[in-house]
Design brief:
single chain, about 550 residues, alpha+beta, Immunoglobulin-like, Alpha-Beta Plaits, 16 helices, disordered N terminus
Length: about 550
């Protein structure tokens, strides 16, 4: 790829970066309700809900949640705005890794309502976007404050995040927005998967199967991260859903790197880069397994290990792009565009995991949107790759045909050579006529015109034979100045007609050139029959020469028993 093409690809990548950066700002309309500021306090022995609702002084409102570490915590909301009682209200929080989550609601008349859940029952409250939603119990007095007790918080991205209070219309709008996003994504992925599977079945290119594997895993990842899995299996433990989500994410990333490995030309991965890609795929797959297994023992350590492994695994994209640019890959530009958003999303999520940037709902869901973009562009890339392979295949077939034609053709006259002539002639069950045509006194022609002139005579002689014979005839140069014609026995071409055409042909330097012909009819089922037919026709040719040349002799037809 030229430097100009690489710069154009880079410009497209930066344009998509700008679109991706602005999209979450516009998309916040899909997040329901009003944000709730919360303060955090660690659970101590003897704590009660009523006491904690009054003990606001114990809560820390300034320290970042991720600085507290894992454990059991209270989270107290700021006072709620007083609203009418006609509309039901809902509390929504982002689903996290935790053992239990209990929501307590304080009403203006002092009543406290409690909604307990554990990781085993939280899935019943999961909405699209993996949002845990709780309907506030209806009461004659309005809610004034919320208190959460979070037990066994892993505090990977926070203790309690994305907390909002929303009305019915907010919830409906958010669910419709997320349903539209996920439905569009699901339809796109299924269409791409089925289309490319059908294409693979027809063409059997390895990169097509790698793409289908990536898209299938992406669909599985979307099902778990969107909350659809909790709808399909209401009794699933929410922590197990998150573990499955991480496993599918790591498998999808590994499949994506594997697709890149199959998509680019083989020369890109020569040497150390091929080994690095294999290691990266192994690291990405292992990262999900590490989280699934290790989270049962120590979630925070498992998450850090998973983050580092995914970071190292995904870093392989940089040398792949660099090597593709240095070695002039024709697929670099479209690959760079396809992978711009997923790479940015993955890096942003890893930075959030390391607490370098704030985490948020749309960042957590960016993988689905960016991978949908990647799947679409990669499908176009596959179409381009198939088209390029088709061009290469057609060129290779044309080259093969040319090579076969050269192998079968006499280079001087353009007629069939002896080997190709016999391959096509022997095995014919029908009766044929063999004409052996030999130029008279060809040595004298060479002595008169020189060998170059003799070659010119051979070329004119061959063209004359080709013009005189019907399209069904096989014509070959089988010796220096000896030619053979095989044609159906019922053909109207007579030997004298060939002689007349040769007499009328204008030879180089107006030299008069004549020929003698020996002719015989028979069948060519086998090589033995060919030898018998050739022997009789050759004897007839000798008789023509002996009788004075420039004439033909027709031998009796070769009998079937001969």
């Amino acid at each position: 790829m030229s430097n100009a093409a690489f710069l154009r690809a880079l410009g497209l990548l930066l344009a998509f970066v700008g679109i991706w950066s602005a999209a979450p700002v516009r998309a916040q309309a899909g997040v329901a309700g009003t944000p709730l500021a919360t303060c955090i306090a660690r659970v101590q022995p003897g704590d009660t809900v009523a006491a904690m609702l009054r003990a606001s002084g114990r809560f820390d409102c300034s320290t970042p949640q991720t600085d507290f570490g894992g454990g059991d915590y209270w989270a107290l909301s700021a006072p709620l705005a007083r609203k009418g009682l006609s509309e039901p209200q809902y509390v929504r929080v982002i689903s996290m890794v935790q053992r239990a989550l209990t929501l307590s609601v304080l009403y203006a008349d002092g009543r406290i309502a409690t909604i307990p859940t554990t990781s085993a029952t939280l899935s019943r409250h999961i909405q699209l976007g993996a949002i845990a939603q709780f309907a506030l119990p209806q009461h004659s007095a309005p809610p004034v404050r919320l208190l959460w007790r979070i037990e066994g918080s892993a505090n990977l991205r926070g203790i309690l995040t994305g907390q909002r209070i929303a009305g019915t219309q907010d919830v409906v709008r958010a669910n419709l927005t997320m349903a539209a996003i996920y439905a569009a994504f699901g339809g796109l992925v299924l269409a791409l998967l089925l289309y490319n599977l059908a294409l693979w079945w027809a063409l059997r290119f390895r990169f097509q199967l790698a793409y289908c594997l990536m898209v299938a895993l992406l669909f599985g990842y979307a099902s778990s991260s969107s909350g659809l899995l909790a709808w399909m299996i209401p009794g699933i433990d929410n922590n197990d859903r998150i573990r499955m989500n991480m496993l599918l994410l790591s498998a999808t990333a590994a499949a994506a790197v594997g697709f890149a490995r199959c998509f680019f030309e083989e020369r890109i991965f020569a040497g150390w880069l091929g080994r690095y890609v294999t290691l990266s795929i192994a690291l990405l797959v292992s990262s999900g397994i590490v989280f699934v297994v290790g989270s049962h023992v120590d979630v925070r350590t498992s998450d850090r290990a998973t983050t580092v492994m995914m970071l190292v695994g995904l870093a392989v994209t940089a040398p792949i792009l660099w090597r593709a640019w240095r070695r002039g890959s024709r697929y670099l530009a479209i690959f760079a565009v396809a992978w711009s958003l997923p790479i940015l999303s993955a890096m942003a999520r890893l930075m959030a995991a390391m607490h370098l940037i704030p985490d948020n709902f749309w960042l957590n869901n960016s993988t689905i949107l960016t991978m949908a973009f990647e799947a679409m562009v990669s499908s176009l890339a596959i179409a381009y790759r198939v088209q390029a392979l088709g061009v290469e295949r057609d060129a290779a077939m044309a080259a093969e045909l040319r090579a076969r034609a050269l192998a079968d053709t006499d280079p001087l006259t353009g007629l069939l050579n002896r080997r190709a002539f016999l391959e096509r002639a022997i095995g014919r069950p029908e009766r044929v006529t063999l004409l052996l045509v030999d130029i008279d006194h060809f040595k004298l022609v060479n002595d008169t015109l020189g060998h170059d002139g003799g070659d010119d005579v051979l070329r004119v002689f061959a063209r004359t034979l080709h013009a005189a014979a019907p399209n069904t005839a096989l014509i070959a140069r089988i010796g220096g100045e000896e030619f053979a014609i095989i044609l159906p026995a019922d053909s109207r071409l007579e030997p004298d007609m060939v002689l007349d055409a040769l007499r009328d042909a204008r030879m180089p330097f107006d030299l008069r050139v004549t020929a003698s012909i020996g002719c015989c009819t028979g069948t060519l089922e086998s090589e033995a029959r060919w030898k018998a037919l050739y022997r009789i026709a050759d004897k007839a040719l000798f008789d023509a020469k002996k009788a004075g040349r420039d004439r033909a002799r027709i031998a009796p037809a070769l009998s079937v028993a001969a």
